[in-house]
């Protein structure tokens, strides 16, 4: 998907900082504003690929700003995800009618938030094209959720797919088990680190069927590296 610039508009400092940390960990570029006036200034400096927008803001409300942006040709194509404590169906429908592309209700998990953002980006005109990630003859097609090795289709579980996608997009770097847990399973997950080893073994077994098991390398005392350099 490449570098993605996300504008976070949230008036509560703690939530704004938390959102920034979660999105930066997911490798998004993040710009933050406490209200729509600050957000407009930031947009003039750096055009965002997506706006994460709180419903209730001081001054001009988030929902009203979203409505104005969608009417402005310069900004109408920017996807907007509304972030709000409002959980009623009527409010959700109103938010979508006013121009929001999606709607996430507090409280939410970081993993859900990142997944929603990526899903909205895939539907947008800028990122909607099929993305093919390839390394060492392994090709992953993100929009089709499909993997091939040397042009042969491979069947993976959802977790194996996410693990392989992370490895393919972060080659030649060493990651600890806890880092892999955060990136693949999500920070809110209560899974033991040994679960990582189980899924690594499963993924290695699949790669071994195509003579590529050595691409997952154990770095003793640290964790795992994915590389075509053996």
From TrEMBL:
Q: Which SMART domains match?
A: REC (SM00448), Trans_reg_C (SM00862)
Outline the extent of the Response regulatory domain. 5-121
PROSITE patterns, alphabetized: OMPR_PHOB, RESPONSE_REGULATORY
Name of the protein in question: Phosphate regulon transcriptional regulatory protein PhoB
Modified positions (4-aspartylphosphate) in chain numbering: 54
The scientific name of the source species is: Candidatus Methylocalor cossyra
Q: What does this protein do?
A: This protein is a positive regulator for the phosphate regulon. Transcription of this operon is positively regulated by PhoB and PhoR when phosphate is limited.
Q: Which NCBIfam families does the entry mention?
A: PhoB
């Amino acid at each position: 998907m490449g570098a993605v610039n996300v504008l976070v508009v949230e008036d509560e400092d703690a939530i704004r900082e938390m959102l920034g940390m979660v999105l930066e960990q997911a490798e998004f570029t993040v710009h933050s504003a406490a209200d729509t006036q600050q957000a407009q200034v930031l947009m003039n400096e750096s055009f965002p690929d997506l706006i994460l927008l709180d419903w209730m803001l001081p001054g001009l409300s988030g929902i009203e700003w979203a409505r104005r942006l969608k009417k402005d040709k310069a900004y109408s194509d920017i996807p907007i995800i509304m972030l709000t404590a409002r959980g009623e169906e009527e409010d959700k429908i109103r938010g979508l009618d006013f121009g929001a592309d999606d709607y996430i209700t507090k409280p939410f998990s970081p993993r859900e938030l990142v997944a929603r953002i990526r899903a909205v980006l895939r539907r947008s005109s800028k990122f909607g094209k099929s993305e093919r990630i390839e390394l060492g003859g392994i090709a992953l097609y993100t929009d089709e959720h499909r993997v091939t090795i040397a042009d042969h289709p491979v069947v993976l579980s959802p977790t194996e797919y996410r693990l392989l996608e992370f490895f393919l997009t972060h080659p030649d770097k060493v990651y600890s088990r806890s880092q892999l847990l955060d990136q693949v399973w999500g920070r809110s997950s209560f899974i033991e680190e040994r679960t990582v080893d189980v899924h690594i073994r499963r993924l290695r077994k699949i790669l071994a069927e195509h003579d590529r098991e050595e691409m997952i390398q154990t770095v003793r005392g640290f964790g795992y590296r994915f590389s075509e350099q053996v």
